[in-house]
């Protein structure tokens, strides 16, 4: 379980960096303490059970996905289908965000929930193709084996399209940066509009957790896992994760938020053809 604890610490660090970029104090613990002392706000006829299920399911999905992330050649749960498990936890995140937006019985929350579903339909296919491309090259769905298969050359080097699409889909999965429309200010915060107190804190923790896990999975998929000079494999994995996570966090203040229609257009006309072509090239090389 050490890997899960380390990823949780990196999620806290990401929250700190984001606070610094936003011009706020870079101390997430103060904000956490404030939210814990706030009273929950409840709208008329809200479905409290569905809201709580959605709020709790988001960090739960991130934690379950983290179980199969290897640090070096070790993972909390050694799974031969780690790629499939990681992708399945994304589906849990879809349901969590939608339930959180639906349950509060608010127009803004509902709009945010449906925006995330539309965003999921846009990014999921290119995301899956990027995952399959790496798995195809390694002849395995095990993240540990995929990382070990890159001893000679990282997949990010000869699969640049798949790697780039994966990073874009990681942002979309955590509705972050240019894909933050589900919690956009034009909808008063979208899914977050009616979440307050501990509910808001838990939901935000899940969001940072998803972003961190997505960054960590990029390491065995495309960056050679724990391979590297001087440092041991179990240390190279978090170092590479920090680099990817810093890049993802940096995008939030550097790119405008895309509207859903534009995001879907880019996904279907650019990302899907790029990943399919990349997968075809990999298949030809492997065969």
Automatic annotation (TrEMBL):
- Would you kindly state one Gene Ontology biological process term found in this protein's UniProt entry? aerobic respiration
Offer an example of a GO molecular function term for this protein: NADH dehydrogenase activity
Q: InterPro entries, from UniProt?
A: NADH_UbQ_OxRdtase_su1/FPO (IPR001694)
UniProt key word Chaperone = no
Specify the signal sequence span.
none
What keyword terms does UniProt attach to this protein?
Answer: Membrane, NAD, Transmembrane, Transmembrane helix
Q: Which GO cellular component does the record give, naming just one? A: plasma membrane
Question: Short name of one Pfam family for this protein?
Answer: NADHdh
- Which regions span the lipid bilayer? 49-71, 91-117, 153-176, 208-227, 233-251, 263-286
Chief localization: membrane
* Membrane protein topology class: Multi-pass membrane protein
Report the subcellular localization. Answer: Cell membrane; Membrane
Family membership? Belongs to the complex I subunit 1 family.
What PANTHER family would the database entry show?
Answer: NADH DEHYDROGENASE SUBUNIT 1, NADH-UBIQUINONE OXIDOREDUCTASE CHAIN 1
Descriptive protein name: NADH-quinone oxidoreductase subunit H
